Amino acid sequence: MHWTRRRTLLLSGVGLSALLFAACSSDSTAPGGAELSAATSADAAAASQDETEEATEAFTLDGAIDPAGASFSSAALSGPSFFNSPPNTRGCATVSSTTDTDGDGAPDNTVLTFALPACHFTGFRGGSVDLTGTITVSDPTPTAPDFAYHAVLSDFTFAASNADQETYTAVRNGTRDLSGSGTGLTLANNITTVRTANGRPSVQVVHNMQFTFTPATAGTLTAGQPLPSGSVSASGTVNFSRGSESRTFT
User: Fold this and answer.
1) Average pLDDT over every residue of 73-94
2) What does the alpha-carbon distance between residue 180 and residue 185 come to, in Å, rounded to a whole number?
3) pLDDT reading at 7 higher than 60
4) What is the pLDDT of residue 239?
5) Is residue 201 reached through a cis peptide bond, with omega within 30 degrees of 0 on the bond before it?
6) 148 with 165: CB under 8 angstroms?
7) Contacts by 163-169 with C-beta closer than 8 Å and gap 24+?
8) What are phi and psi of 43, to 5 degrees?
């Protein structure tokens, strides 16, 4: 299968990572301490960037659970037909249930299982990516139609290589919770990512972040439609650790 990369970001993961990891003077646990090495900084920034991108995608249920799907600009907010086509799958994942009592597109409770060979994609950053693990999606308001969903990631893993034969593995565990209305969306992103690149020691990055999407024109969020133009703001903490090194950024 071919990977269509959704990376038209409203919030730059690169920019956020640069702010977080440029120097320890912005570190809430060891201000003024020794700076991280260039290699460690780069690995920490890459892990943070990846998670920032994935969190930004998660403003739509499509983006949250179908990483090989439509572009950011066309990924739709949850809507009545979200889990209906094709049956028993979403993207490459198998779906345990399509029950949606209130018909808002967020299932009452379903487990999406990502496995090979269905979840092998080419064209990812010039290379390929394998997706494995599970995402459990449920509707916190199963009898009231809205944009809300709750997602639990369990060992959800990206195993990727690029055109230069560089490899990395990112394993995610944690939760994402979306809420909102036609005037805006809020995503609570509490994810721990363990990222290993090119055989170097693993980096763990814990995101406890809140992202807010505000449409440029108030009241323009419509179920089943792509996100309109708008802006994203972020707040919270990011904790990085590798071996004996640990930093928390606010």
Assistant:
1) 63
2) 4
3) no
4) 92
5) no
6) no
7) 163/125, 163/126, 163/127, 164/126, 165/127, 166/197, 166/198, 167/197, 167/198, 168/46, 168/195, 168/196, 168/197, 168/198, 169/195, 169/196, 169/197
8) -65, -40
Mean pLDDT of 144-152: 93
In the numeric block, the tokens 């060979």 are attached to 117
Provide CB contacts within 8 A for 94, sequence distance 6+.
88, 112, 113, 115
Per-residue confidence (pLDDT) for residue 21, from 0 to 100: 45
d(CA 6, CA 226): 13
Per-residue H/E/C for the chain: CECCCCCCCCCCHHHHHHHHHCCHHHECCCCCCCCCCHHHHHHHHHHHHHHHHHHHHCCCHHHHHCCCCCCCCCCECCCCCCCCCCCCEECCEEECCCCCCCCCCCCCEEEEEECCCCCEEEEECCEEEEEEEEEEEECCCCCCCCCCEEEEEEEEEEEEECCCCCEEEEEEEEEEEEEEECCEEEEEEEEEEEEEECCCCCEEEEEEEEEEEEECCCCCCCCCCECCCEEEEEEEEEEEEECCEEEEEC
Q: Which single residue is written with the structure tokens 């565990």?
A: 173
The model's pTM: 0.83
Instruction: Evaluate if residue 225 carries a pLDDT over 70.
Output: yes
